[in-house]
Amino acid sequence: MREAEGENLLRIFPGPGEQAPLKGLYLREPFAPPAGRSKSFVYTNFISSLDGRISLPDPRTEKFNVPPAIGNARDWRLFQELAAGADALVISGRYVRDLPHGVSDRSFPVSGRPEYADLLRWRRARGLAPQPAVVIVTASLDLPPLSRVVASGRSVYVATGEGADPRKAAGVEAEGVRVLRAGAGKRVEGGRLIEALAREAQWNIAMIGGGEVLHALLVDDVLDRLYLTLACRMLGGLSFDTLLTGPRLEPAECFGLEALHYDAGGAESSGVEQLFAILDRRARMTTERTLA
Q1: What is the predicted pLDDT for the residue at 36?
Q2: SS3 for 89?
Q3: CA 80 from centroid of its chain's CA atoms
Q4: In this predicted structure, what is the pLDDT of residue 1?
Q5: pLDDT at position 100
Q6: Which of 76, 96, 207, 261 allows an S-S link to 276, with CB 3.0 to 4.6 Å?
Q7: Is the distance from CB of 128 to CB of 172 less than 8 angstroms?
Q8: Residue 164, CA distances (Å) to 24, 92, 142, 177, 229 in order
Q9: Integer Cα distance of 142 and 148 in angstroms
Q10: Which residues contact 180 (CB under 8 A, 6 or more apart)?
Q11: Domain boundaries, the chain
Q12: Looking at the domain that runs over 40-281, which CATH code has it been given?
């Protein structure tokens, strides 16, 4: 099998179209998170099917995971690059509960596998911590044990609301986890979460799991960039996750295309053709177009 990062992509936008290597695509400027630490930079990454599925339930466990029909090593490489640029990775409590083999130091990127060693060197060269911090967003505080992640040397935070159960919060803190209060009720508010992480010197924030968390970031106007892999397959299914979970956004959130690359696929991507899109959030839409 050829190395996933050894083949080129076709840059479609901005033109003119030309070949671009997969490896390092999201580490090279202008796609990398900003080098300056003067303000927070918040970004997220998803892979989606053509019919909008980002996860489906495993028929054996009923836990939601990226569908095998679209998950692939080439997208995974870019996911790891985005994690490598982060000070902190934000995930939902459900994401953690659905981890198939429990929570350990290997549950989160950046992977320690040899093919990703260049990303760990990239972090060291920029004076970053060996691994990004992990931030788990939860209203219920119903979480599996986190002590193995803490023991690995990562900084681990649990973000919850001021109305969360204080006994559960104390139990989390007893594992060596820092609890951040980032909401007036039980739920976390996006703006307060980013402010709390800035106080912890966590500036580059990658949200890597949770449609409800994405909704909170959008509502509070703190998301800067979306990295979206569109896999050219349709999956169907009546039970599924899509990018966003929550009430309708009023006004709508607008994004502008910054870059688009085409991947023809191959053996290492299970033959999945896909598009890698980089979209920056624009000013909020104030009016809706109507059809006459």
Answers
A1: 60
A2: strand
A3: 10
A4: 31
A5: 73
A6: 261
A7: no
A8: 41, 15, 11, 16, 35
A9: 17
A10: 135, 157, 158, 159, 160, 193, 196, 197, 200
A11: 40-281
A12: 3.40.430.10
As a 3-state breakdown, the chain gives helix, strand, coil percent values, each rounded to 5, of 25, 25, 50
Whose CA is closest to 99, among 140, 46, 149?
A: 149
Rounded to whole angstroms, how far apart are CA atoms 173 and 196? 17
pLDDT at 155: 96
In this prediction, residue 153 carries a pLDDT of: 92
Rounded-to-integer distance, Cα 263 and Cα 182, Å? 39
Using 50 as the pLDDT threshold, list the residues of the chain that sit under it. 1-6, 286-292
Instruction: Please answer whether residues 103 and 145 qualify as being in contact, where contact means their C-beta atoms are separated by less than 8 angstroms.
Output: yes
Q: Peptide bond preceding 14: is omega within 30 degrees of 0, i.e. cis?
A: yes
Beta strands in the chain (DSSP E): 8-13, 18-21, 41-48, 56-57, 64-65, 88-92, 133-137, 156-160, 178-181, 204-209, 225-231, 255-263, 274-281
Backbone angles phi, psi at 127, to 5 degrees: 75, 20
The kind and range of the H/E element at 120 are helix 117-125
Look at residue 268 in the predicted model and tell me its pLDDT: 65
Both structure tokens of 156: 């681990």
Which pLDDT does position 287 carry in this prediction?
45
